[in-house]
Amino acid sequence: MASRIEILNEGGFRSDGRRQFELRTIEIDLAQQGQADGSAVIAHGLTHVLVSVFGPREARMRSHTMHDRANINVEISLAAFSTGDRRKRSRGDKRILEFASTIKSTFEPVIQTTLYPRSQIDIFVQVVQQDGGLLQACINGTTLALITAGIAMLDFVCAISGGVHSTSPLLDLTNLEENDVPNMTVAVMPKTQKVSLLTMDTRLHVERFEEIFRLAVEAGSTILVEMKAAVLGRSSRLIESVDSSTQPHGLGVENDNS
Amino acid sequence: MVEITVLKRSRTEAALTQRKFFKKTAKGKVFKVLRERYLRDDVSCGIDGCKICHDTPLPSYGDKNHSSFPDGHFLLPDTNVFLSQMDLIESPLFGPPIILLQTVMEEVRHRSLPLYNRLKALTRMEDKKVWVFYNEFRSETAIVREEDETPNDRNDRGIRKATQWYAQHVALRSSSIRGQDQNSPTILLLTEDAANRFKAEKLGLSALSVRKYVEGMKDSPQLLDLLAAEGSDEIEPTRVATGRQVLYPEYLSTGILVAGVKAGSLHQGHFNANQYNYLEGNVSVPGFNKPILLIGRENMNRAVQGDVVVVEVFDEKEWKAPADEVVDQESTLKDDDAEESEGEGDAEKSGQLREKEAKMVKVEKIASLRSLERLPTGRIVGVIKRNWRAYVCHIESTSLTSSNSTSLSIQTVFATPVSRLLPRIRLRTRQAPTLLNQKILVTIDRWDATSRYPEGHFVRALGRAETKEAEQESLLLEFEVPYRPFGKAILDCLPQQGEQWVVPPKTESSKEWKDREDLRGLNICSIDPPGCQDIDDALHARVLPNGNVEAGVHIADVSHFVHPDTPMDNEAAARGTTVYLVDKRIDMLPALLGTNLCSLRPFVERLAFSAIWELSPEADIVNVRFTKSVIASKAAFTYEEAQIRKDDPHLQDDLTQSIRLLNTLAQKLKAKRMAAGALNLASPEVKIHLDSAESSDPIDVEQKEMRETNSLVEEFMLLANISVARKIEEVFPQTAVLRRHMPPPKTNFEKLQDLLEKRKGFKLDVSSSGVLAKSLDLCVDPDLPAFNTLVRIMATRCMLSAEYFCSGSVGKNTFGHYGLASSIYTHFTSPIRRYADVLAHRQLSAAIGYSPLHPSLHSKAHVERILEVVNKRHRLAQMASRASVEFYVGLALKARGERGGGTGVTEEAFVIRTFRNGIGIFVSKLGIEGLVTFKKDMLFDAENYTMTVAGMVISVFDKVVVRIEVEKDRNTHRGKVKMTLVSPIDSKGM
């Protein structure tokens, strides 16, 4: 059944008032979360994700240690209240496992794992609220959390989802749009313009693909600006607090860029 | 590269930008939905001269023609105005610029999709000044529903807020640009809701009701008539408003209906009126094999043909059989007074009428006992969706109170729709005397439980009844054929050279010649009906050195000119098909393409899409290939010319040889098809002889002749269609455009089987198409040569109609074409006149790697949507051509009757149905159906389909002679075919 909501109306507006190439608001909070070595809360519109990074540290299980590089472990948990219908998902859910392995393979070539032999880096992703673009939020959050944990990486990884409604490309899809249009998620390393991830769960015409793909790579740089500002803001506040007192407490840095 | 930005939304605005609500699914599960929206400051107001906004198509001071607003004004109507007064707003006389709010758009969409589509069309019309203002996305005008505020109130408040904003916005402009002396134009809120007006005035806004507004306009008399009936009540309360009787049961609430349908206690379906009996109708529902019968006005409960209704089925012991009687609305309700029955106040008269009708619906006791005939019976308890449109009507002269042609007083009159399936409509108009004898367009506005008839309003006049222009236009309107001339945007899609366009010379660099085969050397010819201008197919055949035959079908390459997603393509998709009327053709594509550039005319080079087979001498396909080509047809024959040429032994030229070769192959192909179980169906087809091109008065009618060459062309077209269908289905299994003909359910044939068995002793085996074809061949009466054709026509009527579909949407086992006994089929051979063929061309072109496929054709949903429209258009186009033939047959009969001295025409005919007071007649020579009615009931044996008239037994399939006259109905002034029996007995005066 066709949805009663127009994905893109004749005035060029999407259902939430954005135009085709406008991204949702991005809010980043890099405050310390509990015991984690690095953490980030990121919100793309109504999708909220909390990522905590532990490590590099000794692997819990010996079998996970590798003599030449670090092992990356990604675990995802979806809050039962994150979607409209309250549903508990078990950890063994195949969809979630796939998601975790997608994130893992995205970051394996980016993290300089060879610097941390015989260790493990744990990435815990907690999805607090979902409204489309979940994977992009997870990846962007993980990038920021890894950076706050001080783990060596080659570059930022910026992810964005894109889709095509009839013949018009759209960026940063909401849940409503994701259900309706063919879409994909692209993660790029903006400095090198390398693509570290591209997933598509729906069928998309090969000619549309290139257009969206280029747009998504372009959008990566836009997101990079946001992410960089958040990281710089946190660092400069850290330095300030180190200067003002020897006690480095209050690592919590509220970042809204506003 | 486009600019990509991040929209910032601060958390503090969450109350305004986030919306939380709960949604219940079909299964009853409750979801919480959280949505956000981004408010912006760049939503344009659309008024010219605005310093702040861009993209401003509305004139700077709006409209200055209204008497109350000398400084100019803009209209800002609320939702109800669009819901009830769409005809007024669509009228070309209604010109002020309109600001259409997003809130209003969405509300209209929510309430009625057809109206929403009209509204959207309105925003695109060139001569209308409509600006869509996305008020929900503009930060100043966005509002949030407050607690204990209904959605309706919220929307009203939003509309008022937008009006307020506009007023300030406009004032800002004029004060800053021209100083204080110039008054700024008024933003006028148009609403029927008095409370809303009051609230708006309190805010200092101007607000008016539609009627008040229209009264101050220049063309108010014409426009006032267009106002829907809803508005009229407050102003002129009817004189018998009190004591109104409730004539119909109230509908149940939507919630109950939906729940009932889901639970299976109620049934949902489309309402079909009975054309023989206005007090009877039926509804086909999924729950029952047979349609549910509705008897009587109360049970039909205000449903109109085509409405989606919900039915409650009675207990099985109350089930009844359909009446065996012809009940004519006009004769029964002749005396009903339009003014009087408005309140149904005259109890005595109303009572009489009810009694009269009750007698009509009283089903004969004996009939209802017959279990075979009994159908599930029920009553309508609710209407899910009204399917009302504008209907072509006549005003009944008897319903007029004053026929003084200068009288401008409001009169309530009856309008009788041309279609027998519709109830008469009550209408109030000031122009009644002038509208008499005219065909007019009337829309139904509402049908209250207290009113016997639906109420409507006048839309426009089509012209005098019986003039060809009016009849033609009414026919087109009645069958919803889009017949406007092609707009500028569409004509701009044509090649610039126009008539002078030719295939460019063959060079390496030429775009046209790229990947095209040069078939100019082949002996290609086309065979079409006489006078055919849009030639979309041509053929050739030649013997190959290995003894096999190469046969080619060349189809006009329409997809070379019509590119996807252009205005021309969209228009063609909306039209779906070319409509052929007797004296007019309504083209799907502009004439330049249809009759010239695409038409495969002889002696010129044309672009074509060719299917070329290598066939064994036994007509088995050895291989087939498809290619884009350039051809030069050597001749354009009519069927007759080709036939003569083929039969003339003196002619031995290549072209004639090639026709002979094609003919022998076609015969073998046909034999194969028949062996596979294809049906030889029949439909009454007649040809109208027109006097001359100018007067186009019909002289005579005759049955269409079928020649060998007709079948030649047909066989090769079928072969091409089947081969193409296989190819595109193979390459695009999800979205191939195919055509199928579902096998009819066995129950459809029950009545015909029973008839044949009882009357003629033939058994009809319907278990498969092949068996049916065989048993149809056996239904021959040596005394009546036309009998077989009649049975075939009747059998055809029992079948379903063929339809286009998208291959991914249905199971593969349902692809088959029942009539052609082919496992797969599509339409490929007439792209000039059918849109489905254009799609098939595009898909085939992509399948052979000639051009990439447009993304829209990869989308199943998109293809389904297009085909749904094409199917509907196709069906309506067929009905329109049939109706056009009927009209001309009527004219021809009249002409023939007049030549014969005014005694009418006598023709042989078959009886096809018997009623208690009449018989249904089919005149095969004229291809028309009619009714012979008797004034009183005759001895009638429904079991054996016979009736006794004055001692003579008449039964179904009997041959009779009827006198056919065209008489003018005195009341509605429309021509009516009237038939009376001549033999075996003369029924004149009976």
From TrEMBL, chain A:
Principal cellular location given in the protein's record: cytoplasm
Keywords tagged on the record: Cytoplasm, Exosome
Annotated signal peptide: none
Exoribonuclease phosphorolytic domain location: 22-151, 155-218
Compartments reported by the entry: Cytoplasm; Nucleus, Nucleolus
A GO biological-process term: poly(A)-dependent snoRNA 3'-end processing
One Gene Ontology MF term: RNA binding
Record's subunit section: Component of the RNA exosome complex. Specifically part of the catalytically inactive RNA exosome core complex (Exo-9) which may associate with the catalytic subunits RRP6 and DIS3 in cytoplasmic- and nuclear-specific RNA exosome complex forms. Exo-9 is formed by a hexameric base ring of RNase PH domain-containing subunits and a cap ring consisting of CSL4, RRP4 and RRP40.
Family: Belongs to the RNase PH family.
Name of the molecule in the record: Ribosomal RNA-processing protein 41
Organism, as annotated: Crepidotus variabilis
Automatic annotation (TrEMBL), chain B:
Domain of life: Eukaryota
Molecular functions (GO terms): 3'-5'-RNA exonuclease activity; endonuclease activity; RNA binding
Subcellular location field: Nucleus
Keywords for the protein's UniProt record, in alphabetical order: Exonuclease, Exosome, Hydrolase, Nuclease, Nucleus, RNA-binding, rRNA processing
GO biological process, one term: rRNA catabolic process
SUPFAM superfamilies, alphabetized: Nucleic acid-binding proteins (SSF50249), PIN domain-like (SSF88723)
InterPro entries given in the database record: Dis3_CSD2 (IPR041505), NA-bd_OB-fold (IPR012340), PIN-like_dom_sf (IPR029060), PIN_dom (IPR002716), RNase_II/R (IPR001900), RNase_II/R_CS (IPR022966), RNR_Ribonuclease (IPR050180), Rrp44_CSD1 (IPR033771)
Biased composition (Acidic residues): 336-345
GO cellular component terms listed in the entry, alphabetical order: cytoplasmic exosome (RNase complex); nuclear exosome (RNase complex)
Signal peptide positions on this chain: none
Domain PIN: 73-198
Region (Disordered): 325-354
Pfam families registered for this protein in UniProt: OB_Dis3 (PF17849), PIN_4 (PF13638), RNB (PF00773), Rrp44_CSD1 (PF17216), Rrp44_S1 (PF17215)
Domain RNB: start-end pairs: 516-850
Family according to the record: Belongs to the RNR ribonuclease family.
Name listed for the protein in its UniProt record: Ribosomal RNA-processing protein 44
